[in-house]
Design goal:
With 105 residues, the chain is mainly alpha-helical. The protein starts with 9 loop residues before the first helix and ends with a helix. Helix 1 packs across helix 3 and helix 2 crosses helix 3. It contains 5 helices and 2 strands. The longest helix has 15 residues.
């Protein structure tokens, strides 16, 4: 994917591209993410633009920064729906009634 001129800010386009690269499995949890400098070279963007995109991904919990080590991919966060399903499954498993256990399967 390439950064396109237009109304959508470059940092936001880059954030979307990087997020898609993470989602498609190009980077796995705890993998070191490319440096700001590498991303500047790869996408032809300024360091400030790259930094803003990375900062957004850090704020969203997709990446984490470790001082002196670099930026790393985080494990996917649970969505409210998946959290609710897990809670329901645990609740059903704790009920002794067979009927309740069967309704969770």
């Amino acid at each position: 994917m390439h950064i396109q001129p237009g109304l959508v800010p470059r940092y936001y386009q880059l954030k979307e591209i990087l997020e898609k690269r993470i989602q498609t499995g190009e980077f796995h949890p705890d993998d070191q993410f490319p440096t700001d400098e590498n991303l500047c070279d790869e996408y032809g963007l300024s360091r400030g633009t790259v930094r803003r995109a990375i900062d957004m991904l850090v704020e969203e919990g997709r990446l984490r920064r470790e001082q002196g080590r670099g930026t790393f991919v985080t494990a996917p966060l649970l969505t409210p729906f998946s959290s609710a399903c897990q809670a329901l499954t645990k609740r059903c498993a704790s009920v002794d009634e067979p009927l309740a256990q069967n309704s969770c399967k």
